[in-house]
């Protein structure tokens, strides 16, 4: 998968395109007709309630509401333009809101989930990858014990296809920081395939102090530790993103807490996911060479 940097002109273009869309909205017949009807109604109600002062209040109120609506529409269109162009600069296609398959713990967490600002593409090696903002929600009882509400858990995530790891060294692998939260605890009993997960210690105290490396119980710990070379461990231990990841069924999901609306942050996460996937593929290729097997497609 070739790495591409986003065009800085695209990153800086949001305000410009919003201004262009705002002019288009304000000049549109629908906006003028709706605003005109609103002004007539607002002035009429104002006169009926408070005479001339009421008419002025109605005029101002309707004008403000119309401008707010126009600005919101222009911002929405500019956002779509921005993400479409940004995705294209990375060799991806902008989808917007979508539903991701529940193939890993993060993608199957909670009681319901959603994904927005989603982009996807296919690398030079023919393998799929994606990028976007993801939220899973948990249903919680209200403090007064009456009724329920939903809590949001926001992440920015990247997915990369990694074929062959299941057969070569592991079916299930996850990485979390030591920040204890519901996402970490749910790995004790993996909801995907009912796999029981357990901690795996590496040879790096610094890495183990920062992360929990979780492997399926009775998995091949020796083969997994071969993936985590000293150089790879050092890279993860010092990585500024402090990334989490899940690997299941040929899909690697790398993610960080919180939503992002910054092109630079999205690009950094995608590059991080590519780097981790690349290390997985190196181990798969080495295993296949040792056995004389063909590389997975």
Rg from C-alpha positions? Answer: 25 Å
How would you write the strand order of the largest sheet?
A: 1-2-3-4-9-8-5-7-6
Average of pLDDT = 78
The multimeric state of the shown protein is: single chain
Low-confidence stretches: 184-194
Structural class: alpha+beta
Tell me the series of helices and strands, N- to C-terminal.
Answer: HHHEEEEHEHEHEHHEEH
Q: Termini separation (Å)? A: 14 Å
Total domain modules: 2
Largest sheet: 9 strands, antiparallel
User: What proportion of the residues form beta strands (DSSP E)?
Assistant: 15-25%
Q: What is the number of helices?
A: 9
Describe the structure.
With 297 residues, the chain is an alpha+beta fold. The protein folds into two domains: 82 residues, no CATH class; 199 residues, no CATH class. Strands 1-2-3-4-9-8-5-7-6 form a nine-stranded antiparallel β-sheet. Strand 3 and strand 4 form a beta hairpin. Helix 2 packs antiparallel against helix 3. The protein is elongated. About 4% of the residues have low confidence. This is DUF3137 domain-containing protein. It comes from Paraconexibacter sp. AEG42_29. Keywords: Membrane, Transmembrane, Transmembrane helix.
Keywords summarizing the entry:
9 helices, 297 residues, 9-stranded antiparallel β-sheet, single chain
